[in-house]
Amino acid sequence: MYDIRLWSVRHARLFEGFYRLFERSYVAMAPLIRRIGVERVEKPVAAVERIVKGTLFDCRMCGRCVLSSTGMSCPMNCPKQMRNGPCGGVRANGHCEVRPQMRCVWVQAYEGSRRMSGGHAILDVQKPVDRSIEGSSSWIRVMQEKAPASTRTPVAETHGT
Fold it and tell me: Buried b / exposed e across 89-120, counting CB within 10 Å, b at 16+?
């Protein structure tokens, strides 16, 4: 799994382009999802998302994906789950202080972001992880946030919050 994660970061630009197309597709499906009911599609979509992103990025399903801002390196793989940059304990060789056999997630994020056209997004400050939405689909959340207002279902309905 770790090797695939490293491969995904090395091909961050490819995934960035693919994600843009994919995002447009599922945002366009917002009216259909609304008719079906977000609560009905949440679990199946989250299951597919877990398989796809888990395989490619070692995704931890935080519910608020930031891969496109972190060079396709999931910050939830950091042993300290640092969300906005390295902890300061990065070794001279770029490896993690907690797991010395692993490259620092944020070193990978920086390298991946340099390959992306939107790589400057790594400078954006990320919100803290909301533990109440862990395991939920970030694709559904993005769809809800980016779909035209007339097709949105309140996000609160998708998570009971």
Answer: ebeeeeebeeeeebbbbbbbbbbbbebbeebe
Average pLDDT of every residue of the chain? 91
User: Measured between alpha carbons, how far is 71 from 28 in angstroms, rounded to an integer?
Assistant: 25
Burial of residue 19 (CB within 10 Å: 0-12, 13-18, 19+) is middle
Q: Find all residues with CB under 8 Å of 50, minimum gap 6, and list them.
A: 59, 61
What's the predicted TM-score (pTM) here? Answer: 0.84
Angle formed at CA 66 by CA 63 and CA 67, multiple of 5 degrees: 115
Out of 37-51, 91-105, 141-155, least confident range: 141-155
Q: What is the largest CA-CA distance in the chain?
A: 53
Residue 22's CB: how many other CB atoms inside 10 A?
Answer: 13
For 43-99, what is each residue's pLDDT tens digit? 999 999 999 999 999 999 999 999 999 999 999 999 999 999 999 999 999 999 999
